Amino acid sequence: MENTMYVQCCVCKRVREDDVWVLPDSGQNLQTNASHGYCPECAEAAFEEIREMLNKECTSCTTPPAA
């Protein structure tokens, strides 16, 4: 992965390699050429937290928030 851009999950720190999320090698320099995002599992957890917050805020709404 040297000199190539890669995506690292900002929550669990796994790295995407060919559409598979794996733990990085211990010797890997994660400070260079990294773009951060969410792996599917961490993204779902973050979206669920957002949905719960929105549902709590919309208790006085007349229509439920979009799913």
Can you give the helix content as a percent range? 25-40%
Shape: elongated
Q: What's the β-strand tally? A: 4
Mean pLDDT: 82
Major sheet: size, sense and barrel closure?
Answer: 2 strands, parallel
Q: Which segments are poorly predicted (pLDDT under 50) over 5 or more consecutive residues?
A: none
Cα end-to-end separation: 38 Å
Number of helices: 1
Please tell me the total number of domains. Answer: 1
Strand order of the largest sheet: 1-4
Main attributes of the structure:
alpha+beta, 27% helix, 1 helix, two-stranded antiparallel ribbon, two-stranded parallel sheet, 4 strands, 67 residues
In words, what does this structure look like?
With 67 residues, the chain is α+β, with helices and mostly antiparallel strands. The chain has one domain (6-57). The chain contains one helix and four strands; from the N terminus they run ββββα. The chain has one helix spanning 40-57; strands at 6-9, 15-17, 20-22, 34-37. The strands form two sheets. The chain has a two-stranded parallel sheet with strand order 1-4. A two-stranded antiparallel ribbon has the order 2-3. It is elongated, with a radius of gyration of 17 Å. 1% of the residues are buried.
What is the compact description of this entry?
The chain has 67 residues and is α+β, with helices and mostly antiparallel strands.
List the helices and strands and how they pair.
Layout: E1 6-9, E2 15-17, E3 20-22, E4 34-37, H1 40-57
